[in-house]
Specification:
By secondary structure, this protein is of the alpha/beta class. It contains 6 helices and 9 strands; from the N terminus they run H-E-E-H-H-E-H-E-H-E-E-H-E-E-E. Bound molecules: S-adenosylmethionine.
């Protein structure tokens, strides 16, 4: 059994001392394994201190979000999207979409996430899958124009909505997966697909959050 990276476990336990990570294969993309929260999440309300810590530093990277699963599967099923290309995974979290791109034959994968714990998770998870990804924090520090920028479940934070206009500055093509915006309308993006998934481990979110839509940049 592959041991869990002790530093990553320590980062989780800084906010969730009673939780553990385990190596999980994704239901929609069984070829990918990730260090994710154990599925038997603590039931009932968290102690007050833990709740405050989680709110100030949510361990999003310890889940593979529904949009991440759908976008990862899209790249694995359609490797021509990424083969021999330079890819940026924006809001990478666990790194799931970037790892899918690398497994599907991308030339270079850059995982970008503001959260330092997520940056560590991307590296740990890439290694678990036998691939390499480069890791960045602020997207403005990435000084290359990629072939494709992928972004899964980053619009839950409405402050990120203006980024839809900026993402095309970083790549010739942009593919966004989202289930949080009910009526997504943006002149630069068109809907190109839809699929169902749950966040993993399953958070039992409302049904609408499992209905993931894919949007592609229109140039
Ligand atoms: C809900 S998680 C999705 C993670 C992964 N893409 C997935 O689908 O499983 C959103 C991630 O985006 C990151 N994030 C949010 N806003 C960001 C920004 N402006 N720049 C970089 N990362 C961002 C968060 O830190 C978090 O790890």
């Amino acid at each position: 059994m592959t041991p869990i990276d002790p530093e990553l476990m320590a980062r989780l336990n800084a906010t969730l001392p009673s939780c553990r990570l385990q190596i999980s294969r994704l239901p929609l993309c069984p070829e990918i394994k990730l260090a994710l929260l154990e599925p038997d999440l603590p039931q009932g309300p968290l102690p007050h201190d833990e709740m405050l810590a989680v709110l100030s530093q949510p361990a999003y990277w310890a889940f593979c979000w529904a949009s991440g699963q759908v976008l990862a599967r899209q790249l694995i099923k359609h490797p021509q999207e990424v083969r021999n290309k330079v890819i940026i995974d924006f809001g990478a979290g666990s790194g799931v979409v970037g790892i899918a791109a690398a497994l599907a034959g991308a030339l270079r994968v850059i995982c970008c996430d503001l959260d330092e714990d997520a940056q560590l998770a991307c590296g740990v998870n890439a290694k678990l899958n036998g691939v390499h990804v480069e890791v960045f924090g602020d997207i403005d520090t990435i000084n290359i124009e990629a072939d494709l920028l992928v972004a899964a479940d980053v619009l839950y934070d409405r402050d990120n909505l203006p980024l839809l206009d900026r993402l095309p500055d970083f790549a010739r093509d942009v593919l966004v997966a989202d289930s949080r915006i009910r009526h997504f309308k943006h002149p630069k993006y068109q809907r190109v697909g839809q699929a169902n998934a749950t966040t993993w481990p399953d958070l039992d979110e409302q049904k609408a959050f499992n209905e993931v839509k894919l949007y592609r940049l229109v140039r």
